[in-house]
Amino acid sequence: MKVLAVLGSARRKGNTETLMNEAIKAIGDRAKVTLRVVEEMTVHGCQGCKGCRIPGADGCIFMDDMQTLYTEMKEADALILGSPVYYGEVTGQMKCFMDRWYALRDGERRLRMASGKKVLFILTQGAPTNDRYHAALDRLTKVLTSYDMVPDIVVAAGVEKKGDARKRPELLEAARKGGEWLVSASDTAAAAAAPAA
Questions:
Q1: Domains of the chain (ranges plus CATH)?
Q2: Mean of the per-residue pLDDT values of the chain
Q3: Three-state SS string across 68-119, please?
Q4: How far apart are CA 51 and CA 62, in angstroms?
Q5: Which of 16, 24, 50, 90 is the most exposed place for a label (fewest CB within 10 A)?
C-alpha cells in the first residue's frame, strides 16, 4: 500500500507536521509513506489555460513539480494532507496544490485517477473552537468528495504556538486514529466501493 502525505505548511516541525507524523507513525510498516512539502517544491497556481481539458491531453501541461505530485497522487492508495488555517482558509501553498487538481479531470470531467481514495486532512488553527472555520471545512469536504475521495478531517483547534500540538494528547490520538483508519482493510474496501460523484 502507498500513502502520499502532503504538508501545506511552510513551518517545518510545527503543529501540522507534528500531527501528520503521528498519523504516519500509526501507519507503521503497513504502507510506504512519501512525505512532500509544498513549500520546498515549485508548485505554481493554476494558470486557467484549460490545456488539461483539450482533446488528447493527459493532464496539466504546465511543467513544474506538480507533475511529480500528480503521479504520486495517482499511484497512492490513500492521502494525508495537512495545513494550518491562515485568514480563514488553508495556506497559499496548499491552495496552489489543490487548485491544480483541476487537471485530475479530463475534458469530459472523468477522473484521471482511481475513485474512493481515503484522505486524512489535518487542519490546525489558533482559534480555540472547532467550529470557528466551518465555512473552510465545508469547502474542503466539497472539494475532496467532488474528486470521489473519502475524507476524514481532523481539526486541531487552539494550537497557535509552535509545539502546542505536542501538549495535547487528544489531538495526537485523533491523528493516530486517522492514520489507522487510512490503512484499515474494511474501511479501504468500503471506500473503493463508494459510488462515483
A1: 2-192 (3.40.50.360)
A2: 94
A3: HHHHHHHHCCEEEEEEEEECCEECHHHHHHHHHHHHHECCCCCECCCCCCEE
A4: 8
A5: 50
